[in-house]
Amino acid sequence: MKLTKTFKAFFESEKSGGLLLLSVTIISLLLANSSFQTGYIAFWETNIGSHSITHWINDGLMAIFFLLIGLELEREIYQGELSNFKNASLPIFGALGGMIVPAGLFLLLNYGTITQNGAGIPMATDIAFAIGILSLLGNRVPTSLKVFLTALAVIDDIGAIMVIAVFYTDNIAFINLLIAFGIMGFLFILNRRKVHNLIPYLIGGAGMWYFMLNSGVHATITGVLLAFVIPFGDGSKKTSSYKLQHFLHKPVAFFILPLFAIANTGIAIGNDWHEGLNHPNTIGIILGLVVGKPLGIWLFSFLAVTAGICSLPKDLKWTNILGAGMLGGIGFTMSIFITLLAFKNDGEEVITYSKIAILIASCIAGTVGFLWLQFNLKKGKAN
């Protein structure tokens, strides 16, 4: 299987971005637990206008990340690895299992408690980190495994966006929501009338974001909605969709996601940090990401192949799928993002312990997944 140029560029940017994410996370944790702790944490809480710096990053810049995810998904659906149902169905079923099983394990421990709202936390996969770890295995990684993990992570993130839209939405201000969708409708008309200039779409997208922010629905949803009204055309390098997608790759991988990681992993870890790990919430997060993810991804993929809905690529084994599932347990960016939404009214302590659980689980999942694949993948040139 040959990689398309677009997919290869995406994989390469995410690979480097994942390694950068790891570096800035370590630096952020060190600063938050050093003599600079007070000033460092206070900096991210500094207000610019009516919101803190962290809030602007999480609600503003992350909308651009979701715009890129939407553009990637659109391209994969029209021309890429998801354009053929037979190819797309394996990662779709894998992603489905990777969301249902972790959420189920979490709810098994937290249903009926004040933390049951965190069921979406272990459902997510961090694309950059997962691909970054996979890339460390070099040319022994089969192309099909790269495609499977990347497609699974993208579908996972779309699932997380749907969860955010449905379950983590405040009281809805319908007038603002209608205005946001009205702007989207206008942009769709521009699309159908073959207006390819990006400027009206970007201005309209900014307006959509503002009204969505004030509607109660999380503003980052705007990114995905905007992606699907930007003209795709024939998908060539001359199209608006391709130009914007190509332009956003590096800023997202090397600026927005690292900035999100720095702002949200400034965790002051006290001497009693381990006490929060015996809570059903933190146990559910760790169990969901470390056990639920690989179990769900492998099981649903196996059932789909057994039922004849899709087939396992010739260069892959079920041990490879299990290894990819382990890497799928690296929740990090998306898991932290959902944590902030799920527990924003439950106090800083719950959020802090949840972040620690995510970091621990992601570290375990990444390490075990890397070692598993290193042991199971044959050395030498991959297909």
Binned strand content: under 5%
Segments where pLDDT lies below 50 for 5+ residues? none
Q: Helical proportion? A: 55-70%
Radius of gyration: 20 Å
Q: Work out the oligomeric state of the chains in this entry.
A: single chain
List keywords for this structure.
mainly alpha, 383 residues
What topology does this entry show?
Elements (H helix, E strand, L loop, with lengths): L4 H28 L4 H8 L2 E2 L2 E2 H26 L6 H26 L16 H9 L7 H25 L6 H19 L5 H16 L7 H7 L12 H25 L15 H27 L11 H10 L4 H11 L5 H29 L7
Antiparallel strand pairs: 1-2
Report on the structure:
By secondary structure, this protein is mainly α. The protein has 14 helices and two strands; from the N terminus they run ααββαααααααααααα. It has helices spanning 5-32, 37-44, 53-78, 85-110, 127-135, 143-167, 174-192, 198-213, 221-227, 240-264, 280-306, 318-327, 332-342, 348-376, and strands at residues 47-48, 51-52. The chain has a two-stranded antiparallel ribbon. A hairpin with a 2-residue loop joins strand 1 (47-48) and strand 2. Helix 5 runs antiparallel to helix 6 (143-167), helix 12 packs antiparallel against helix 14 and helix 13 packs antiparallel against helix 14. It is globular, with a radius of gyration of 20 Å. The termini are close together.
Short summary of the structure?
By secondary structure, the protein is mainly alpha-helical. The protein has helices at residues 5-32, 37-44, 53-78, 85-110, 127-135, 143-167, 174-192, 198-213, 221-227, 240-264, 280-306, 318-327, 332-342, 348-376; strands at 47-48, 51-52.
